[in-house]
Write a structure and sequence with these properties.
Helix content is 22%, strand content 22%. The chain is built from five helices and twelve strands. Belongs to the FKBP-type PPIase family.
Length: 300
């Protein structure tokens, strides 16, 4: 009888032990998926694990001291699922490096201070980096958007693959200046910087008509593009854009730039976002997006 009881207890213990081994927490499951991803892509030796649970590697070295919560930091974000699916961009999750649209949105992150950046996973990655550094991180859901996910863009319990290209600049104006100069290198053209406003311009034809100033009424043929070449707005000679120039009538970059030529002239503008649509964006223009304009003011 005793042997039967002992056998039953032993059987139960083995069964319960087996059940315990098969039960994993969400953290353990996500840890396993990250490790499998690293092994599959021969990346295990390149990534380090942070104490908060994410894995990271330096793609490009930065400069100076490691960033702190009190630093301002601006960065281009590339965000994918661990399976390689691109995450759609939103006004707060600006995932569009190709248009030089940068994070964070200053409507939600005061002055770009790292201590206000969310989710905490992105903040913790920044706190591992330096200005000018490019860093890749594999982020479990519990340091990102958790079981609820984010809007319709990210499902709950999604492990994310993020690359942060941290701009080597300590203020928003300096960060946008860096991005515009990065773009200029891709064009093969030379632009002049208006040191007072931060606007860049290239006068193609100064024009021979009246000097354009506040109060001038103009007819213009223009093309507005994102830095990836996508046209977001335009007008034609058959249907020119007509307006009177005054403060508030147009984005500030247009008002400042158009006054550098005369009627009949043509100018290209590279406009930082703070002289355009800022942290709100507009339609196809994401928040924090610098813009290109080619503007010809028709002669009278």
């Amino acid at each position: 009888m005793i042997k039967k009881i002992l056998g039953f207890v032993l059987t139960c213990s083995i069964f319960l032990g087996a059940c315990t081994k098969e039960t994993r927490t969400l953290q353990e499951i996500e840890e396993l998926s990250i490790k499998e991803f690293l092994t599959k892509n021969n990346l295990t030796s390149k990534f380090k694990k942070d104490s908060t649970g994410f894995y990271y590697m330096t793609v490009k070295e930065g400069h100076g001291d490691t960033l702190q919560n009190y630093n301002q930091a601006f960065f281009l974000l590339e965000l994918k699922s661990l399976e390689g699916t691109d995450i759609a961009t939103t006004s707060l999750l600006i995932n569009s490096a190709e248009t030089y649209s940068y994070m964070p949105n200053l409507n939600s992150v005061k002055n770009g201070f790292i201590g206000y950046v969310s989710p905490i996973g992105l903040r913790n990655v920044l706190l591992k980096a330096k200005y000018g550094e490019k860093i890749r991180a594999l982020l479990p859901s519990y340091v990102m958007f958790g079981k609820n996910g984010y809007s319709t863009v990210i499902k709950g319990n999604t492990v994310l693959d993020a690359t942060l290209d941290i701009i080597n600049a300590k203020t928003q104006a300096a960060a946008e200046d860096t991005l515009i100069n990065r773009y200029i290198k891709t064009t093969g053209q030379s632009y002049t910087k208006d040191e007072e406003t931060g606007l860049y311009y290239r006068i193609i034809n100064e024009g021979t008509g009246a000097q354009i100033a506040i109060g001038s009424t103009i007819k213009a043929v223009y093309t507005g593009k994102l830095f990836n070449g996508k046209v977001f707005d335009s007008s034609t000679k058959d249907s020119p854009f007509e307006t009177t120039i005054y403060n508030g009538s147009l984005i500030t970059g247009w008002i400042e730039g158009i006054q550098k030529i005369k009627k009949g002239g043509r100018i290209e503008l590279l406009i930082p976002s703070y002289l355009a649509y800022g942290a709100n964006g507009s339609g196809a223009i994401l928040p924090n997006t610098p813009l290109y304009f080619d503007i010809e003011v028709l002669a009278e």
